[in-house]
Amino acid sequence: MTLTPLWATGLLLVMVFCGRQFRENWKAQESGWVRRAWSWGLPAAAAFAVLAFAPFTGG
């Protein structure tokens, strides 16, 4: 599996926006924050893992 620049950009945006929401939930710690933190943290971590380990194609 290789990443095109378009897919890599999309994954970067997913990582940034989901990571920000994870951090917001972690800081607020309102009722049900753990479930929301997991629901935002898992996509951010998955996007980071793909960006870190999948090779890029020169586009």
UniProtKB/TrEMBL annotation:
<keyword id="KW-1133">Transmembrane helix</keyword>
<keyword id="KW-0812">Transmembrane</keyword>
<keyword id="KW-0472">Membrane</keyword>
<feature type="transmembrane region" description="Helical">
    <location>
        <begin position="37"/>
        <end position="56"/>
    </location>
</feature>
<protein>
    <submittedName>
        <fullName>Uncharacterized protein</fullName>
    </submittedName>
</protein>
